[in-house]
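Researcher: Structure for this, please.
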Amino acid sequence: MNENENEVVMSQGREYKPKGESYVQDPFAGSQAKQDKESGTKSEVTSASSSEADTENRAQVISGNTIMRRPLIFVGVAVFVVVVLITVIVVGSSSAKRKKAEEEQHALELLEEEETYVYRYSSDEIRDLRLAGYTGDEIEMYEADEWDVQGLVKSAEAARKAMYEEEILPYFNSASDEFKLLWRDTWVGQDDFDLGDGDTFDYFEETVNVDYTKLEPKGHQLFIKYYLVNDSNACFMTVTPERYLELEESGNIVLRIKYAKTSDGAKVIISATEVIP
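Model: Predicted structure, C-alpha cell format:
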C-alpha cells in the first residue's frame, strides 16, 4: 500500500473525506478562523488592559497603604521621643535628689565630727614638749589652743640656744664679768674639802669678829659674804631685809658661829648669827 494513499490530509478550510472522495471547501472555515483570530486578539488586548488596570490598582493600594502608614510611624516616633524624654527627666530628677541627699548627709556627718572633735596631743608629743622644757600647765594651755607641737619644740630650742649664748656661755669665759662674779660671790670659787668617813666630828661654838661684804639681792634670799681669820675661803650668811638695808656695803661684824671639824681639821659652818651689842 502506498503511504500517500493512506495519508490523511488535514488542511484549514477543508473537510476530511475518505479515500476516493473529493475535498469540499468549507465556506465558513475561513470566516470562523478569522473570527477566532480576532477574538484571540481582542482577548489578548482585554487581558493586557485588565493586567494594566490590576497593576495600577495594586500601585494605588500600596501607595494608599504607605500614605496611611506614614502618620502612624510619625505618631510612634513622637510617642517614643516623649517616653525617652520623660524617662530622662525622671532619672535625672531622681539622680539629682539622690545626690542632694548624699551631700546633705555628708554635711551632717562633718558637722557631727566638728561638734564631737576634741584636739588632743599624743603621748609622744607631750613627751617632746616636756623635753623641750614646757610645764604641764603650759602644755594644757597650748593643747586647748591647738598649737602645733613641732612649732613649739622649735621655738623652745631657739629660745634655749639664745639664752645659753647670752646668759650661760659667758660664765665659761674666765675673763668675763659673769664668770668673775660667779667665782667670787658663790660657793663655786671655794676650795673643795673631804668629810672623811664621818665617824669623828668635833663640834664647836665661838664668837668671832669678821669682815663682810654685802651681795646683790638675787633669788629669794639676802646674803652677806664674810671671811674667817686666816682663811681664804668665804662663808655666807642670810640677813633680814631690815638689817640688809642698815648694813654698809662692806665692813666689820661680830658673829656667833657654830661649826664642826673633820678629822683633817676642816671647818664646816653649821650656823652664824650676828651679835648685836
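Researcher: Any notable elements?
Model: The two ends are 210 Å apart (CA to CA). The helical segments are 3-6, 29-116, 123-131, 136-144, 149-168, 177-185, 241-246.
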